[in-house]
Structures are given as C-alpha cells and as structure tokens.
User: Fold this.
Amino acid sequence: MTALLEATGLIRRWGGLTAVDRVDVSVAQGSLHGLIGPNGAGKTTLVNMITGVDRIDDGRVRFQGDDVTGLASHRLASKGMARTFQTSQLFEDESVIDNVMAGRHGHIRYRFPHTLFYTPRVVREERGHRTEVYAVLRELDLAEDAHRQVAELSYGRRRLVELARAIASQPTLLVLDEPAAGLPGSDVDVLGDVLRRLRDSGYTILVIEHNIGLLMTICDRMTVLSEGKVIADGVPAVVRESPEVIEAYLGRNDDA
Amino acid sequence: MTDTLTRPHSPPVPGPGAERRASLLATMAGAVLLIVAAAVPALTDFSTTYLMAYVLIVALLGLSLHLLMGLMGTFSLGQAALFGTGAYAAVVVSEDVGLDGAIGFVLVAAIGALLGLVMGAVTLRVSDLYLALTTLAIGYILENVVRNTDWLGGSQGLTGFYITFFGRSLDDPRLLCWIGLGVLTLFMIMISSMRRSKIGRAFMAVRESPIAARSIGVDARRYKLLGFAMAGAFSAIAGALYSAWSLVVNPSVFSIDLTLSVLAIAIVGGLRSMPGILVVAALLTYFRNSAADFGVADYVLLVYGALIVLSLRFLPLGLGGLTGSRAVARVRRLVAHRSRSRGGGRA
Assistant:
C-alpha cells in the first residue's frame, strides 16, 4: 500500500517547549490509522500542523504525493483532506441537512452572483448536492433527522452530523479529532462500527483518540505519541506489547 | 447510560414538502405586506410618510447588521462610516457628477462596497472587540476628514442639493418611500436566497469558527470580505436615501449615535431574523420620534441601552428568536412532555 499522507520530521516549538518533536507519521491508502497518546502528548498539535491549522516549524508533509507543507487549511480541504474538531462547529439552529450541505462547499460550482436571485442553476445544483448529502445521511443512519434542527439532537448524534459533514466533502483523507470524546461507552462501540464501515467502503481515516480501547479494536495501524515524540508505530498487536507504550501510557496510573 | 448515537424514537419532523409550503406561505405573506406598505404613502399625510421613509432607511441598516453579525458573526461598529459615506457620495454623485439616482445609487452602492472591502481588509487580522473598535475608528477618521474638507462643506455640511430618481425629485417623501421599499425588498430577497446557498452556509461556518470553516474548504477571509462589501453597499444605499430624506448632510451622519441605535434595533429585533429587525426598526423609530410627546426625549439612548441589555439577558436571539422554528419546537416538546407526564409519566 502506498502512503496517502506522509509527514516527516515535524517539529513545533512553543517557546522553550517542543510540543511536537521530529514526528514521522505515514498513513497508508485505505487504512484506518490511529494516533494515540496521553493528554498533552501533542496529538492535536500534530494534527493541526498536518491539516494546515497550526504552523510547521520544521519538517515536511506530503499528501497524495504532493508537498503540502504549510499550505492553508482551506486549500488542503479542497485537495481532499477533511477533518472534524473536538468541539462542535455546527450551526445549532439550522437543520441537519443544511449543516451537512456545508461540507459540499468545495463541490458546488455556481458563484456568488447566481445566489443573489437564486437562479435556476442554483436550484438545480442545490438539488443535486442534496441528493448526495441524503446518501451520506442514510449511510450514517441520520436520514430521518435530516430536517430536524441540530440543537434538538443528542450530543452523540450531533457528533455524527459533524462526521457526516466531513464525509459529504468526499475526502480522500478523513481526519477525526477525538470523535469519541464525551460519548458514553455504548456509543463508543457504535462509533467504532461506523468508522470500520467507512474504512471498508474505501475511506482513509486518521483518528486521534486517547481512548486506547477503541483504537486497539478498530485500527489497522497506530502511532503512539508521548511528550511530543513517537514512541511506537505499527499494528495494534505489536504496539500493545511495546514496553515504551506500556510505561508511558498503560503502566502509569493514567485514567485514559 | 443510554445510546445517544442510535436514533431514539421520536415524533415525525416536517419534511422538505412542509418546508417548501412554509416558504411559499411566507413569500405570499411578504407580498401582501409589501402591497399594504406601498399603499401607505398614497393614503396618509406627509409626516407619516416621512416617518415611514426613515423607518425604511434604518431598516436597511439593520439588514446590513443582520448580514454581518447575524449570519457572519462579525461584530462591527462601522455602520455609520458606511452610511455617512453613502450619504455624502449620493450628494456628490448627484451634484458634481450629475447622475440621476437610478444610476447614481448603483455607483453609491459600489463606493459603499469598496469602503466595506477596505474595512474588511484592515480588520482581517483582528476579531471580536478589536474588530469592533477598528471599525468604529474608521468612522471617526472619516468624520474628521469630512469635517476638514471644504469641498464637502466642512463642519457645516452640504445643503440645497437635488437628488432625482428617473428625473423625479426625491424631496417627495412618497417617492422616497417607494424606492426605500423597493430597495428593502430587493435586499431581503438577496439575503434570503444567499442564505439558502453555499454562500450563506459559508457565512455561518465562518460565524461558528473560521478555523473549522477553512477545514471544509471555505476561504474564511474571502467570505469575510464579501460580507463586508455587501454590508457596505446596503449601508451606503441607506445613507443615499437619508441624504434625500433629510436634505442636509453634515458630519453627524458618521456619529456613533446612529451606529448604536441601529445596533439596538438589530439586537432587540433579532440578529438572525429579518422580520424581527423590520418590526423593531418601526417600533423604536416611532418611539424615538415621539419620545418628546411622552416626555422622555432625554432618555432615548438610555432606553435603547436598557433594551439591549434586557434583550441580551432574556432574549439572546431577539424578538425574532421567539418565532424561530427552534422556539416553536421547544414549545412543542414542552407540550408533548406535559401531556406525557399527565398520562402516567411514561414516554
């Protein structure tokens, strides 16, 4: 398998602290790749660097074979990198479908002047994209809530809406920042199934979690961060046995 | 704990058909209201018509805030800067360039859009309070520039000008009203159709978080500039109508007083609700106009301030928030809940 995303030697310094220290991550095409580590390990910083949200002090990021180091995040998004955030970024008082339609942004071809009077072209294109969004909603079992307002949904289902929005952009790489955060245990299992299903239907997914149990069961490959450094990388069965991981993560009294 | 990811059993929600019916109904109601409003100037006296024209001007400014603050989430205090520029530009375009309003107003809108762009560009790197203060400062700068420019009448301002629309003078308040209504309708159509498109969704994404907006491919800066340019065009047209309405344009058109009263209208009416803004624009303008009759003329701004505070505390989405489908849904849930608990407490 070829690497869809390849980050090499990434460094991010905050004053004297090196939050991310020469990190290499390689996400294979079609894989479900986990990025784990205790709180403060630098996971989110690393992901922010990869997705163009945070600055890269040193190192390179290659995506689909192109060097995308330091590219603005909206450009990365249009190249096919979609991501979700730890906190909700939804439009609370709009419907689910309108929220997910926002993910189609890069695929909609009509331009600003068309929208001023809602020309037939806008009507036609919106209808087409809505059909595609419905398909995504069905895939995530959200179709029946399509016209419900996001604020009315439970926390767990709102997180699904965010996932749906990222999927609606038809990404080649899906980056999920702690999708299980705040979910009750039974929901975490459901989420795991959803992620596995997405991987099986061809998505490449990079998922950040500190819930090690979830990732161990669903990931093809994992990268473990601790204090800004990669301490293990490989298939879950191997990572689980790594003494560094056990010491840094499992062995300590860390309630992750 | 129960599953929250899988779908709970819940009452059916209105589908796309119901939405379409509701929007058709709203369009029809709007058309009826428009006809009634258009009839008012023909049926009443001049003073009522003047008041109505002023309400329309203020409502236009309110719409620009709906766009900037309500949809895009940008807290701007630059309305007076754009409004004042529009007021002066209308006079200059009419008197010095000699254009009829039918073309001149388009030019004024373009000037407003340009200033809006500049305002957006200088505030790209700041947000929240800093952005508000920067836009406020732009108003002060313009006010002082105008005050010291003899060509624009200095601190005395400009009087004795003529603004025409298709050759007819706008000193007729009925004509002014009709033009105001036309422009207001046009802008409302533009905003509501934009809102249902990718542009509206991009604005809302920027409102929730510029970082997240970029992650779905929205170039947050570009949309911020677009929002400012549109708000600039709307506010400048409001200013142009104002100069025709008041027949005097002086540096006070840049005053913070105007910005704050429009802010009050937009917040109390509901930043995300166009009807709410229109209703409150009418109510507060009427109140302000007849404050002297009630004997509270000195306290107008105090009342405005109190209304802002009360609204932010008790109605964060303003009066318009009361009629929003979210509030309706909440009431529906409450009713459902009541009837359930009466029926033995089982869902």
User: Anything to note?
Assistant: Chain A touches chain B through 57 residues (CB under 8 Å). DSSP finds ten helices and ten strands in chain A. Residues 36 and 224 of chain A are 5 Å apart (CA to CA). The first helix of chain A runs from residue 43 to 50.
